[in-house]
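Data availability (excerpt). All sequences and predicted token strings are deposited with the supplementary files. A representative entry, Cysteine--tRNA ligase, is shown inline so that the format can be inspected without opening the archive.
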Amino acid sequence: MSLKIYNTMTRTKEVFVPLEEGKVKMYVCGPTVYNYIHIGNARPFIVFDVVRKYLLAAGYDVTYVLNFTDVDDKLIRKAEELKVTVPEVADRFVDAFYDDVRWLGIKDADVHPRVTENIKEIIDFIQGLIDKGFAYVSEGDVNFRTSKFHEYGKLSHQNLEELQFGIRIDVDEKKENPQDFVLWKNAKPGEISWSAPWGDGRPGWHIECSAMINKYLGPSIDIHGGGHDLTFPHHECEIAQSESLNEQNFVSYWMHNGYININNEKMSKSLGNGINVTDLRSRMKPQVIRYFMLSSHYRSPLNFSDDTIKQAENSIERIWNSYSNLKHRYANAAAIQAADGVKEAPEVMSRLEEIRNAFHDRMQDDFSTPDAITALFELVAETNLYLKQPVAAEPVLRRMLDLFTEFHSVLGILEEEDQALLDEEIEQLIEERKEARQSKNWARADEIRDLLTEKGIVLEDTPQGMRWRRK
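Structure token line:
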């Protein structure tokens, strides 16, 4: 089966054919670093982390760029509020971004460019648009002339007349037409600014992504991603800028993820219902957040509530228990034998290959993570059934472990635990409990189990010996 991607431009699933065989150039719009990221921000970062990991697993050489908007009105206001400089605000929240996304198991992009590090490229890009007649200077601002780019609106499937009469646009006397958008903003007194041929100022929002894509990936890329809310105007404007300057198709596949609601209400500042990732870090495991995000298709809306998070926690617990039992069984030499000592169960091995094929078929259908998770639970069920046998074949257990690892390399929802993480006190309690059980001091053994439970350590007695796990 060939990989198919839903393209927002055509509104259909298309077979993925990269611009250059074996290579993928991918760009995702990153955060405006004036505050901590909330779970709505986190969704595209998790979604495209999985997309990237799956493409890598499929053998592609992926170059992934995710930017930081580190200068705009929001950062200027935040700097004034905190009585610090704009770069200090940016540095603070870039560091916070890395802390949050790494906690979520998201791998750093190959390049994380900042707007302030690419001012020259942005100015050169704008000058190129002016030279071609697609942009004009007006009282220190530079605006894009939308009427000259005849395909403006093709991504959002709107035309200029619909945009003019269907969308409220603030009147700006500096613009030839209300639909024109700013590429360079003339600096107000005291604001952070850079020198440009048309006056001191700073970049508009839309131009930064076009310029950075041009610099780091080239004039045409394979995949451009972001939240659904960026389709218009941000991505529409990117297309107009890039295709006007470079005179070639900008993006082959546009991917947009759906919204997140909070308790069935749209997340918004006015409702005050935003949830920052940093606030979740003390309340739940990162695998729970990833599972929650991936349990619905990336293009579908998603509802964050106590119930949906509890469901995610229960699912993660079920997956982890199966995987942990499998690892424990594999490590117990007395409970496994080589294939020549135990029937290798060819029907089980065949079933495992069916599960693996199903996982990849589902991921190749527009990265359908809910269906891929279904395949993972089929692996859990097959594993649990096989582990009921008193003696198991080593090749079967190893293949099961390999599949858990393979699926985890894409989804990132397994928790890796290590007994070395136990502190000395807990190690002593576990050893004391073993001795209490050996001497049939059941009361003390139960007392120690309760103490360990308080510390978040769950003990399980199995036919292959005692194993532990964290809650």
